[in-house]
Design a protein that fits this description.
The protein is an all-alpha fold. It contains 4 helices and no strands. Helix 2 runs antiparallel to helix 3. The longest helix has 105 residues.
């Protein structure tokens, strides 16, 4: 005859499910422990990888900053070379303008001297020479106007290059500095033109 709860005075059934439950619970805990340990090991590896990446990050940033610095230096050198080229062009243009002014002054002086000598001889010949002088002055004025227009076109081109080289909204101090140089060059050119017109 089988034992029952009445015979033993014990309320647990036979076979006792508590042992089976404990075994299943132990197996589940063991499986859960294995999953958690695997997860923790993976997290440890991820932390190590993140730490390595974090250790390399300052060096990476330093390299990127160095590349950016070199790029800006190259751009500034390029802009400086362009400014030097423009400065050389202005110097050459000033020399040509001075030579033109001197040539015109010599021509006008010679024409006036010839006119003085011709006044005593013939009034018609004097009027003819004065017409030639006026024509020469007109040609010279047109030449100076053409050069001034050429300077304005080049300055507009230079301004657009400077704006595109420095970027939108960036480098305004450099743009103002360039504009100051350009203004100084324009003032000196205007001085040459005024000196020429006073001769």
């Amino acid at each position: 005859m089988a034992d029952t709860t009445e015979n033993r005075g014990d309320w647990r059934p036979v076979p006792d499910p508590t042992v089976l439950t404990t075994q299943q619970l132990a197996a589940a805990v063991s499986a859960l422990r294995e999953i958690i340990e695997t997860r923790l090991e993976a997290m440890d590896k991820a932390i190590v990888l993140l730490q390595r990446a974090a250790d390399r990050f300052p060096e990476h940033v330093r390299g990127e900053v160095e590349q950016l610095k070199n790029l800006h230096i190259e751009r500034f050198l390029s802009v400086q070379t362009q400014f030097e080229g423009v400065h050389t062009q202005f110097i050459e243009r000033d020399k040509r303008a001075e030579q033109t002014t001197n040539s015109a002054a010599v021509a006008v002086s010679a024409a006036l001297q010839a006119a003085k000598e011709a006044v005593g001889k013939n009034e018609t010949s004097t009027m003819k020479q004065l017409d030639q002088i006026a024509s020469l002055m007109s040609v010279m004025t047109k030449g100076v106007d053409d050069k001034f227009e050429d300077v304005k076109i080049r300055l507009n081109s230079l301004e657009s290059r400077v704006v595109s080289a420095t970027g939108k909204g960036e480098g305004t101090d450099k743009t103002w500095a360039v504009m100051g140089v350009i203004a100084a060059l324009l003032i000196s050119l205007l001085g040459v033109l005024i000196a020429f017109s006073n001769k």
